[in-house]
Amino acid sequence: MTRMRINGVEEEISATTLTELLVARGVDPAARFLAIAVNGSVVRRAEWPSRELAAGDTVEIVRPLQGG
Amino acid sequence: MTDPLIIAAATLKSRLFVGTAGYPNQQVLLDCLEASGAQMVTVSIRRISLEGYAESLVDLLGGRYRLLPNTAGCATVRDAVLTAELAREALDTNWLKLELIGDRETLYPDVEQLVQAAEELVRKGFTVLPYCNEDPVTCQKLADVGCAAVMPLGSLIGSGMGIANPAAIELICSRSPVPVVLDAGIGTASDAALAMELGCDAVLANTAIAKSHDPLRMAAAMRAGVEGGRLARLAGRIPRRRFAEPSSPQLGLVGT
Fold first, then answer.
1. Least C-beta-crowded within 10 Å: which of B22, B122, B233, B253?
2. Do A27 and B52 touch (CB under 8 A)?
3. Cα(B114)–Cα(B10) distance, rounded to whole angstroms?
4. What is the CA radius of gyration of chain B?
5. Distance between A64 CA and the closest CA of chain B, angstroms
6. What ipTM was reported for this prediction?
7. Inter-chain contact B89–A42, Cβ cutoff 8 Å?
8. CB atoms A67 and B70 under 8 Å
9. pLDDT digits over B69-95, tens only?
10. pLDDT tens figures, B21-37
11. How far apart (Å, rounded) are the C-alpha atoms in residues B93 and B85?
């Protein structure tokens, strides 16, 4: 288990890559319109399966929502 | 009569931009977008719920609209730039409505950071449309750093107070080297018409439609308001006079 910050919440995570993290959370990694940043940098979708997570990482997972 | 709006390299038939927040439900939103005739539609970028991924708004909008993601709520250059980059990745568009808020209560833009963020995002290849103060100097600075349009506020976001300073908006329109999209404060169709009469190139409305008693009617009214205002602007209003000027001929008046 590794401690990191996912969408603003500190958590113990067993996933080792971004794709694993999504799957563990019930989010389909193939779902359209998702975007992810790790430590303030966007990680392109093609890199999600290989992008390894480390202790202390800050992950933002977003999608478009209603807005003005 | 064709009178397209051109921003960056995009040609838009509709001069009404519509926001997607706050509608009674998604069907009303979709119907309102249809009734508004809008092509440019704004969305926000938010953290997903980690409880599970539901159907996205964007799935519903399909390929029918041009989506303009915003950085609503961002208060620092860093957050705005990251949100912009996430939006570009999520939606595969480099268009951005840049919002950089300086005060949580009034939602006034933080001009200093706004110009900085705009410059950085233009450098990163974004087509930036910044929500900004109704101030000609700020608008000029934003155009100078390469923004594709400026979006001065009519009045506070969501206030429905209309155009608080029409003289400033008119001045901005007369001097801006880039299109002017009036953003924020629109309360009803006449506000949108006034914006267009003052010389704005387009209007963005959201709350005025979403929170009206009959959003579908208001969407149609906004469309008519924008079209009417634009036509009036092109036609050119008569000058204001202090005294009456009879419109019927004086010659042949009965009893003279």
1. B253
2. yes
3. 24
4. 20
5. 4
6. 0.93
7. yes
8. yes
9. 999 999 999 999 999 999 999 999 999
10. 999 999 999 999 999 99
11. 10
